[in-house]
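Q: Hand in one record:
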Amino acid sequence: MQPTTRAVSGASPKTTWPPVAVPGQAQRATTPLPPADPSTQPTRAVGSPSPGDRLTATAGQVTGSGDWVTALADRGPVTDPGQPVGPVDPGAVVPATEGADLLTELRSVISRYVVMPSTEALDAVTLWVAATHLQPAWQHAPRLAVVGPAKRCGKSRLLDVLHDTVHNPFITVNSTPVAIFRSITDHPPTLLVDEADTIFGSVKVAEKNEEMRGLLNSGHQRNRPTTRVVGPEHKPTKFATFAMAALAGIGDLPDMIMDRAVVVRMRRRGPGETVRSFRSRYDTPLLHALRDRLAGWLVPLTDAAAGMEPVMPVEDRAADTWEPLVAVADLAEGGWPQRARHACRVMTAHEEGQDQDTGLKTRILADVRAVFAGLGDPDALSTESLLSALNADPEGPWREYGSSGLTPRGLQLLLKDYGISSANRRFPGDTQRRGFARNQFADAWARYCPRPEPASPAGR
């Protein structure tokens, strides 16, 4: 899928953000993406991967060619269960490119140290790491929320790998908010926050970390500085907050973070799932070499990336969060544009409804629609008939909604925010009962739970 780009005039070392679009403004011209300048590629250190090296992950072994493969093979066997390398469609044939090869190599390396919960999550983390090297190009700085239900789910190990592959990592442990504020420049670091659940804990803990909370909340979008009084003259000074950040913690983080994040829900390794041990002495040089190659490919494309408007499979805030990842995939070409959009659709859909209150309010709309459809889409249903069908669904949440299942009062409260309420209506047999008309739900169905459209091959 070819990305859409804004026209980029001239070649400057620093990206200049275009003005805000004005309604009625003429359509922007498009320019092809410039190739990476070979002269900007870093010199290869001994034992680091070269452009000609190939690394392939299969269960129990490392195959390929080059010093990079030899170095990894010396570290012992590795298993990569359920995490194939290649395009989403195994039968698809896509041309290899430098960017696609680098992303595939990074993806394979990540899977050696951490068992990811899904192939989509592995793709997302790979693209997120690459996107950190183009932060000056992005309008939004997506968070990477690495959460799990308990300890020993691989969260901290994933941060170890991120630390050695992202752009300019900044570990926030024991760092004061002032130090972090002063570290964020036009080329911001990548913030790495372990045990993030301790920052957003009780009210007392939250008050203690209010500065950090504010930074993480405002830094998702460009041009959201924070103002502090500094110096003996108490001069108001603005500090930039825009920076990509990875946060790891037990349990969900606050909604304001989760809603702006690519969420990876880690889990403990199961029987037969093994990973390679991480030793900085051996692994860090190899990861740094791969990081440098990523930067050598991506940094020359900063202006081109800033002008991209990739076609997104989601909308609104989810599109803002995922756009840098999809843009990197479009720059890489090969099978990555399809991979990125597939991961975006699957992971975004999974997160919808994770919040219990919001999820139930969306779920009730979908389930009411299913009840109407199952009864032949009548013009109206009595409250009694609707509740009977909802509470009878063995896979639905309604029979356990309260001590007696979903009641008329509970149904009214769930539908209140949509402006839907029951009323006296006439039914066959000239009976009159409280109920709902089908057309009352039409607008809410279209807005909050539209029926998914079949995905076309070009849209994947």
Notes: Residues 280-298 form the longest helix (19 residues). The chain has two domains: 35-351, 356-448.
